[in-house]
From TrEMBL:
InterPro entries to which the protein is assigned, alphabetical: Avidin, Avidin-like_CS, Avidin-like_sf, Avidin/str, Avidin/Streptavidin-rel
SUBUNIT field: Homotetramer.
Cystines in this chain: 25-104
Organism placement in taxonomy: Eukaryota, Metazoa, Chordata, Craniata, Vertebrata
Homology family: Belongs to the avidin/streptavidin family.
Key words, A-Z: Biotin, Disulfide bond, Glycoprotein, Secreted, Signal
Annotated PROSITE patterns: AVIDIN_1, AVIDIN_2
Top-level taxon of the source organism: Eukaryota
SUPFAM superfamilies reported for this sequence: Avidin/streptavidin
Location within or outside the cell: Secreted
Function: Forms a strong non-covalent specific complex with biotin.
Signal peptide: 1-19
The protein, known as: Avidin
Amino acid sequence: MVQATPLLLVLFLALGAHGASVKKCNLIGRWVNDLGSNMTITTLNAKGVFTGSYHTAVTATTNEIRLSPLQGSVQRPNQKGQPTFGFTVNWSFSDSITVFTGQCFVDDDGKEILKTMWLLRSRVEDIKNDWKATRVGINVFTRLEQQE
């Protein structure tokens, strides 16, 4: 029994150290998605409200793409390491708006990943064209590394 004590102590410390080193996702920063769109989240307050900007790489319009504002909220900020969130992008160059919902994950290598699903609503001329006004999709965002 005496010989097992050091082994149990080492095992306990190893497991405890692993649990203490779980990295939390931080939404603030610059992100890029699987289509090459860039998102920057600049502020996140204590209530979980955040703001930023979105520059899409894709569009269904012929208008010139412009930087667009985003605003959202994160569920219970600083409570969980991999929070859920939602945000809205009000497109500056088209008559449409997109809402995103997702979760921030930290993978086994410590890399932060945002898994999202979105609904894009475009303006249509009349109710007969409502059937084509909403699109749905998914995006995966990864953090853009800082340039030094």
